Amino acid sequence: MANHKIEIRRRNVEKILQAAEQVFAEKGFGATSMGDIAERAELPRSNLHYYFSTKDDLYRAVLQDLLDVWKQDALCFEQFDDPRVVLTSYIRAKMSHSRSRSLGSKIWAEEMLHGAPLLGASLDDNLVPWAQLKINKIRRWVEEGRILPVEPSALLYMIWASTQHYADFGYQVALLNGGEALSDMGFERAVQTVTGVILRGIGLEP
């Protein structure tokens, strides 16, 4: 019985987060109500308040869920040491989630553009040390002569900008692709192009 309740909770939270991600991306934080999200999730509003007391709490949960996904994408920095393997894996994972979680990426971008008013200081404890570990590894690759000299943080930002472009500017990408989203083949070409440009820029072959 306990496991059944846990599974119901997991499914409901997942359903709420998916609905919230959609509505926040479409309407923005200010114009979104808990009622809007409950309607999209096809759940009573009381269910939302059972899991998330306020809209602020739900918004933070959506952003934290996305950050957790991005952290999973970066596990290759811990699992492998070969810069070619790490960066190839990381770029593909980031671009794949730019495709599957494009709305979440837009919400994150909006939060950063406004100075992280809701995430605030939590980023100091969450994002900063996580990113620093990646920067330190890139710096070690440079020091060991395994990649060309590069400012580690700039390389990381370049990867983020290149991969998340396909989410944050999805409309522009589709517009320049004849008004249609990239096909699977087109997306694969984009992944290989971004990967190749970044690897060659630091002296590696794809």
UniProtKB/TrEMBL annotation:
Question: What's an example Gene Ontology biological process for this entry?
Answer: negative regulation of DNA-templated transcription
Q: Which residues form the HTH tetR-type domain?
A: 10-70
Q: Pfam family of this protein, just one? A: TetR_C_3
- Care to name a GO molecular-function term for this sequence? transcription cis-regulatory region binding
What ranges are recorded for DNA binding?
33-52
Source taxon at top rank: Bacteria
**Keyword set, alphabetical order:** DNA-binding
State the protein's name.
HTH-type transcriptional regulator RutR
